[in-house]
Specification:
By secondary structure, this protein is mainly alpha-helical. The chain contains seven helices and seven strands, in the order H-H-E-E-E-E-H-E-H-H-H-E-E-H. It folds into two domains: 42 residues; 175 residues, no CATH class.
């Protein structure tokens, strides 16, 4: 009996020591090592790929899309229609997003796609409504928008619903409207788009893209000069 108790005690102590060692290694040393390497080698990305304005204030992340809407007349009215602020470049639609219903202090956006098939009646109507809005909002005197020129990303949300980029085609479609709303020359705004267009990664991965947040920061700086 005493021998059995001794064996059990030794096994228990060995298990406890293994638990303590693994806790220190995997719960303390490994996270510290990974965090240290990330902060030294990938400081910007490790801290959320923050985007700062000309004043050095963090205004968002280059990985997460934002909306650019006019303030609501009644912030507490959930049914009030959202109206885009047309002086800014607009991102992709976010039909796939819901809103947090648990946290009552902050309005949190949930990432997700619509998960609707291509022949879904709601999705088809969303695309039609979005296309009509893009044509209407971006048609300015002397520069009407042809519905056939509206790119797919202007009327569909991304898989995450938080895509921070738009295609160069959609950015250029907005140039005349942005120039008019801000009292700028079209050439100035067009140059902003060109300067903020990123090529394919390594020359062949993905598609050319424009980060809307960074483009709007540059636009704000241009309007303040």
């Amino acid at each position: 009996m005493n021998n059995s108790a001794g064996n059990a005690g030794r096994l228990l102590w060995a298990g406890l020591r293994a638990l303590l060692v693994l806790t220190v290694v995997t719960g303390v040393l490994y996270p510290l090592a990974v965090t240290g390497i990330a902060q030294v080698a990938f400081n910007d990305k490790a801290n959320g790929s923050e985007v700062k304005d000309a004043s050095g204030n963090v205004v968002g992340s280059e990985l997460i899309g934002q909306t650019y809407n006019l303030p609501k007349k009644n912030p507490d009215d959930a049914e009030e229609a959202v109206v885009p602020d047309l002086k800014w470049f607009q991102p992709r639609p976010s039909n796939g997003l819901g809103s947090n219903s648990v946290n009552t202090q902050y309005s949190l956006i949930l990432s997700g796609a619509t998960n609707r098939s291509g022949d879904n009646a709601d999705l088809i109507q969303w695309v039609k409504d979005a296309k009509a809005a893009v044509v209407k909002d971006n048609s300015v005197p002397g520069h009407p928008v042809d519905p056939s020129d509206v790119p797919a990303d202007a009327v569909t949300s991304s898989g995450s619903g938080l895509d921070p980029h738009i295609s160069p085609a959609y950015a250029k479609l907005q140039v005349n409207r942005v120039a008019e709303k801000n009292g700028l020359d079209v050439e100035q705004v067009d140059k902003l788009v060109v300067d903020h267009t990123d090529d394919r990664v390594l020359g062949f991965i993905g598609e050319p893209r424009v980060n809307v947040l960074q483009l709007n920061i540059a636009l704000k700086e241009l309007t303040q000069n």
